[in-house]
Amino acid sequence: MLIFQEIISSTPFDNAEILAGWKGKDRYILQAAAPTDLLEEPSLLLLSKSGDAHLLLADYLEHPNIQGILLYGAENIHLSPTILQMAETIGKPLLDVSVSNPYSLQKAITDLQQLKSMGLFHLVWERTTNYWLQLGQRSGLNGLLARLGSIIGEGIQMLNEHFYIRKWNGDADPEEQRKDLQASYYQQVKSRSDVLFMLNNGADEYLLMRLQSGEILYGFMFIQVRPGMMLDVTIEQLTHAIPAIISMLKSEKAVLRAHQSYKEQFLTNLLYNNIESEQTLINLGGQWGWDFTKPTQLMVLRMDVATNFTGGTIDQNEIISHIRSIVQANFLNLIAFPIQGFIVLIIFDSPAVTGINRKEFMVSLAGKIHHSLAHSFPGIDFQIGLGRQHPSNMECFRSFYEAKVALELGKYETKHRAVLHFEDIGIARLLANIHNDILHDYYQETLGKLIGMDQEEDFYLETIETFFTNNADINATAEQLYIHPNTLRKRIKKIESLLNVDFNLLDDLVKIDVALKIMKMLK
């Protein structure tokens, strides 16, 4: 007794085209028969595409002992939508093969039945591995997965090693499904080395298969387990397709590594103004599918390990995958890559983002990225700097510089912000282009007496820094320093006398504020 899902896994039926009725893939047969044979037991009807026999398809589909029909021959045949719908409704598989000899097809069915009766059907499954390898070489990974999904009758989802969806068929990402699966996987089986797992999510059940070769994990594939599914047959088909899938993922990874070196050099040249012309930029970017005719916005992400971090080392690839899913969920394209310990994001504009609200939109997007990263990667402190958008993408190097300046100078702000745009860092951004020697001389000339005294009495410098942090508010400063407001007023008068300034004058306030910012920067 053979079911159709087993038949289609063996030669020559593995090349059969599934025309309709595949929901009946679990129907069983006891023989392969011609129209002239007695049809007294469950049968696969072999029907030639030549002649007029196929005109009786409707009658054959209604025959109680015909479980499915195999159209054979080298001819092309076009079936009416009515026949296809009938097969689909009844649930009787309708298949098409280019084999012309019906006796070879009958013999193949007989051989399969004998192998199964002798408990040797595993030999058939083992031979399917070679079929999947050949199919992968002919049709690529997408073609292989499409065929595999059609045979088992269920959509196959691919996940990378970080549990992010690999888009191979254009379907929408089942994001919530992925998150539930990930949580279930990490709770149940992450520490095990099994290839196959059954995961539960409420009433739903999923089959998850690990794609691993040696120490290298390439990802996972999963399908939903439906009621009535021939699970043992499905597992055999998936198991013997895995070597071919891993082989293709290996080849893909090798190609990506080769491309990656060229890609990294291109992106480095872009950020350091080493590209000859805008047309060169557009042409080179086009090789990787990047449209540099569109305006871009650049962000730089910095990661610092906090004291409560327990993850060993920071996995930049996992963080980049996480960022990519957030940005793409906002219908934007991006380039994300590590450089100099940072992660750089080049985000391509959407028509929905106009010049008027572009900055606000990008700052908001950066905020979403930061919030999600902080939640998903506890123990890592993230900061995001944004550069300005410039008229040409040839000026990405300016935006890169500005984003790094925003990150660096943001550390010296009175109120720390995890996301900071270059335009919002105030007077400190003017100081970024001045030589350190000049800045050092300025703050020494302005605060030198106070710094000298602080070596003996350290509360003067602390007092003035706290005073400016609290926007010259006497009561707030006194409260933070745990002193009486009158004591603070006396200190302020002493500081004014030492520095020869008057804090009632705006020019003097600005002078001291700038000197304090410079001192923090240079330290």
UniProtKB/TrEMBL annotation:
Domain of life (superkingdom)? Bacteria
Q: What Pfam families does the record point to?
A: GGDEF_2, HTH_30
Q: Where is the PucR C-terminal helix-turn-helix domain?
A: 460-518
Limits of the CdaR GGDEF-like domain: 277-409
Give the record's family classification.
Belongs to the CdaR family.
Q: What is this protein called?
A: Helix-turn-helix domain-containing protein
